[in-house]
Amino acid sequence: IHQYNDPQAVFDLIDKQFSVDDNVLLDLTKTFLEEFKVGLANYNQAMAMIPSFVTGVPDGTETGTFLALDLGGTNLRVCEVVLNGDKTFSLVQQKYRVSETLKAGEATALFDYLADSVDAFLTTHATTDYTSPQDNKEAAASNSEVHLGLTFSFPVEQTALGSGKILTWTKGFSAKNAIGNDVVKLLQDAFDRKHMHVKCVALVNDTVGALLSRAYTAGGCIAGAIFGTGTNGAYIEQVANIPKLAGSAAAARGGEMVINTEWGAFNNSRSHLPTTPYDQALDRLSINPSFQAFEKFISGMYLGEIVRHVMVSLVDAVPKALLFSGKSTPELNKHYGLDTSFMSAVEEAWIGDSNEPDSFEHPPFGQEFSKEQLSPKVVAKLDRIRKTIVEHLAFKEEQVSYKDAAIVRWICSLVARRAALLSGVAVATVLIQTKHASLKGEHSEIKGINDRLGLGVDGSLVEHYPNFTKILRESLRLLVGEAVEKRVEIGLAKDGSGVGAALCALMALKHS
Ligand code: ADP
């Protein structure tokens, strides 16, 4: 809440609070690298650096038909994936809603619901006779069960391709009697209780899935990243660089292993992240205060809520409100009442169908400004934003001034820009850790200077948020230089969790 003499000072302060300067980005990358190293050496760290037991990546020639189940975001997805062996696949999927009651209830109820959803899918959607040898030789040879890969996008300490203990819930889940248990067993028990002929053979994180599926469709990839409800990344590491595996069979085998970083937990101590009072409020009111600190600056679940906090602070400002003439709506007042898709819609309304630079011509927000002072082009843009605000926040059109629209768009772009710049820090860390890049100002030997650096990404933010990738690249250029940034090939791992789970199920069957 702001109390001010000069309204411009309030806007200047918010601008400053959300700006991240170059030195902060550089320092964060150094800290990120340190946390990577600590996580690779020790168990039970915030940055968990979880070995996935995936020891190679696909090249596009893999074949087979599998079921995939994806839990970890806004929806539960069940799909049937056919890998054609020529970098292509086909996929049928159905989404099921996970109610808040299930998210917070008993784990057995949640896993029974997962099994019911797979059962419903098999009856209504699945197209393949899984027992037919032409369709899936591996599956048919071992038994007549349907093989399923589980994409489970929560921190899990994996002990093999097909088992892992749940470490903690994130992203609004809190089901009881799950933490500490093997998630594959919880699911298999639910299938068995219902006498279903489905066998869960592989457990994969969505980031690992994004990496694998991008490697399958693009013929190579070094990392996967999610910018959706939450954020996380996975990359290919040398087993020799994972001290915590010392003494294990995996260490004896050597070679490479995909690591699920769980980077959403970067800097849980919050000593480095450029935290604003709005971030503090969001964290304090979240179901996991002081956990997933990085994720709370970046992902879809939180960005809309940060914007809402900033908007409300301006509505409440004294002596005179600085937004919506001091009016609010139940939607604007509601905790998590503003979805991140609102921000996308506002920015799209601003950009319109033109591709012009997004510089923002308007009088300073500290002054009153009227329609007459604005160019017709800006008026048209602001009219579209006013409509978006009216639609999403249930204001009446006359309650939203041109200045209000301009301020809302400005807040959205500040919050999103910070998110995209920080996302670049995570990606740069992976490039440096894998010796594909060195941090600006430091000169280490880098490998394969002409190689394409494939990054498979998934999630609504990268897919839909205007300029998210562009700003992420701006951050990469600053951190690792333009030459490396240009070689980074960011590609959508569309249906990555389903295809990744299928590829993982195939690997598990080959190893068994
Ligand atoms: P998930 O990560 O759950 O698999 P998504 O990648 O679709 O699924 O992410 C959903 C999150 O993205 C939600 O938090 C939602 O607020 C946000 N979101 C949905 N649509 C958009 C959009 N058009 N632009 C930005 N964020 C969006």
TrEMBL record:
<keyword id="KW-0547">Nucleotide-binding</keyword>
<dbReference type="Pfam" id="PF00349">
    <property type="entry name" value="Hexokinase_1"/>
</dbReference>
<dbReference type="GO" id="GO:0001678">
    <property type="term" value="P:intracellular glucose homeostasis"/>
</dbReference>
<dbReference type="GO" id="GO:0005524">
    <property type="term" value="F:ATP binding"/>
</dbReference>
<comment type="pathway">
    <text>Carbohydrate degradation; glycolysis; D-glyceraldehyde 3-phosphate and glycerone phosphate from D-glucose: step 1/4.</text>
</comment>
<dbReference type="GO" id="GO:0004340">
    <property type="term" value="F:glucokinase activity"/>
</dbReference>
<comment type="similarity">
    <text>Belongs to the hexokinase family.</text>
</comment>
<feature type="domain" description="Hexokinase N-terminal">
    <location>
        <begin position="14"/>
        <end position="216"/>
    </location>
</feature>
<dbReference type="GO" id="GO:0006096">
    <property type="term" value="P:glycolytic process"/>
</dbReference>
<dbReference type="GO" id="GO:0005829">
    <property type="term" value="C:cytosol"/>
</dbReference>
<keyword id="KW-0067">ATP-binding</keyword>
<dbReference type="GO" id="GO:0008865">
    <property type="term" value="F:fructokinase activity"/>
</dbReference>
<dbReference type="InterPro" id="IPR043129">
    <property type="entry name" value="ATPase_NBD"/>
</dbReference>
<feature type="domain" description="Hexokinase C-terminal">
    <location>
        <begin position="223"/>
        <end position="507"/>
    </location>
</feature>
<dbReference type="GO" id="GO:0005739">
    <property type="term" value="C:mitochondrion"/>
</dbReference>
<dbReference type="InterPro" id="IPR022672">
    <property type="entry name" value="Hexokinase_N"/>
</dbReference>
<keyword id="KW-0808">Transferase</keyword>
<dbReference type="GO" id="GO:0006006">
    <property type="term" value="P:glucose metabolic process"/>
</dbReference>
<keyword id="KW-0418">Kinase</keyword>
<dbReference type="InterPro" id="IPR001312">
    <property type="entry name" value="Hexokinase"/>
</dbReference>
<dbReference type="InterPro" id="IPR022673">
    <property type="entry name" value="Hexokinase_C"/>
</dbReference>
<protein>
    <recommendedName>
        <fullName>Phosphotransferase</fullName>
        <ecNumber>2.7.1.-</ecNumber>
    </recommendedName>
</protein>
<keyword id="KW-0324">Glycolysis</keyword>
<dbReference type="GO" id="GO:0005536">
    <property type="term" value="F:D-glucose binding"/>
</dbReference>
<dbReference type="Pfam" id="PF03727">
    <property type="entry name" value="Hexokinase_2"/>
</dbReference>
